[in-house]
Amino acid sequence: MRIVFVGAGYVGLVSGTCLADFGHDVVCVDNDESKVDALRQGRIPIYEPGLDDLVARNVQQKRLSFSTDLGECVRTCDVVFIAVGTPSRRGDGHADLSYVYAAAREIARHIEGFTLVVTKSTVPVGTGDEVERIIRDERPDADFAVVSNPEFLREGAAIEDFKRPDRIVIGIEDERAREVANEIYRPLSLNQAPILYTRRRTAELIKYAANAFLATKITFINEMADLCEAVGADVQDVARGIGLDNRIGRKFLHAGPGFGGSCFPKDTRALAETARQIGSPARLIDMVISINEDRKRQMAEKIVAACGGSVEGRTIAVLGLTFKPNTDDMRESPSIDIISALVEKGAKVRAHDPEGAEQARKVLPDIEYADEPYACAAGADALVLITEWDVYRALDLTRLKDLLAQPVICDLRNVYKPAEMARRGIRYYGVGRGELR
Ligand code: UGA
Q1: Whole-structure pTM over 0.95, yes or no?
Q2: Total of domains in the chain
Q3: Closest C-alpha residue for ligand 1 atom 23
Q4: Ranges for the UDP-glucose/GDP-mannose dehydrogenase C-terminal domain (predicted)?
Q5: Which residues pair with residue 383 across a beta bridge?
Q6: Which pLDDT tens digit goes with each residue over 57-95?
């Protein structure tokens, strides 16, 4: 089967490469020539564990290639995935669909023979209908079907998530599409991944509902963490205690500095906006968005309190800047708001991140960057852990304490054990670990 991905960004590149690895013939098309050139030379523009090897293997075996010529690729393919960006629109927070619609128009001009057009980008309900209308307007004679096939990849674990998904969701309006979709995902169904066929609008909503639910779960446990601090309880045990109930589940119950990244903040805003426009407000999601926004400022206050009420003229060492580990992605990372608030309050911030420093310099240009965690801590008045990279889990705590000017650690991901910190004479502030305060 010959498959084209429009957009060689995160989703297109990972999904395209994985489908090539399953034996399909895949071309990833992007209009950014420098990106396509880099990919052709084996340089991967994003950090995703294992992706460089997988791309190299499939390029070498001639199942995967890169191109800027969308027309040529579409004319000869059976399936074209739209995997372009849908950033938040300035002003109303709605998803900006201009790239999706531009791709649909361009695809329409080149369709030859029955072609499946699949929206992989996260798009609001009804976008599939609009894509279909655009293609039909542009080329009334074209033989095609538009399918919604949202992705559920997590950055940092995207290859595993693609190859062993919990489910594949496919929204169709045309029965011919089912056969082609079955063919695309046959290798995955051999891994026993359930394929859920549904209507197109439902598939589009499933994507937003999944992300909004996970964001709600995180926000719920973050509120419980505040309550734990107030009443002297431990949120880690609360999460375990409720999570062992299968109806609740243990995942996505880690209290922290609030959710960030390229998906949850954008998708919750877009869902809330769709709901508002349609006259069926999603009040819970509105609340989740607002609580999560407040949380970052609240974390800065927590750090100020740990420093005795002021950070004016103090040096704060920050470990971890990306929105989560195993990515270099800084998009909507809580670290941005937390650090900006600290700087506003007069602190001098020195930070370390294993992979994210280059991206971080673009959004946080005025802070200092250290090459390794101990250099980051040296002479600082407090150490703040914002992102739980593995390398921070086994740091030499005696050395850290000796390096810090004040033995203060704010652990916004609950990586360390409060009892151990107390034993070492470190003033330790976790999230929702009330009994030790
Ligand atoms: C998320 C979803 O998990 C994927 O299923 C989805 O495909 C993807 O969005 C998308 O829409 O493309 P991702 O943004 O890569 O994936 O990251 P997550 O691992 O979900 O984490 C998101 C944020 O929530 C991070 O800031 C993370 O630190 C935070 N988080 C996560 C918590 O604070 N606590 C938790 O228990 C889990």
Answers
A1: no
A2: 2
A3: 259
A4: 317-418
A5: 317, 409
A6: 999 999 999 999 999 999 999 999 999 998 878 777 788
